[in-house]
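EI: anyone free to look at a 122-residue chain?
SC: sure, send it
EI:
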Amino acid sequence: MLCVVDVGFSCYASCLKNEKNKALDNTFFIGYIAHIQDQFQGEENGVRDAMSVALTGIGRRNRTLNAAAIRAAKAIGRMVVDYGDNARKSIGILTHLESDHLRRKFNRRDAGRVVFSQRLRP
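SC: here you go
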């Protein structure tokens, strides 16, 4: 069962880049953010790893989901994934979600939409 859940979240994270599918709206992703927030601490390492990747990906999608993912990450607290005796470390989810890069990305996208929508008005 663990493998199925791990693969499920990994596949889900790969869907995040599909911005053309209208079914993948903010409401769809908010449900997964809530699930991750509620279940993260009780899951096995592999599932926590996949959940952390999914939460990071969701938070990179747009400003609204970024804010929701940040709130969830803060509610979860320290998101520890034990990788055993190798060099891999848990990703700093809040570091990624609160990065200047994402702030600039969202500001650019929002500015483009405002300018574009203003040009369409008579």
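EI: Helices lie at 2-14, 26-39, 45-59, 63-76, 93-97, 100-120.
SC: 👍
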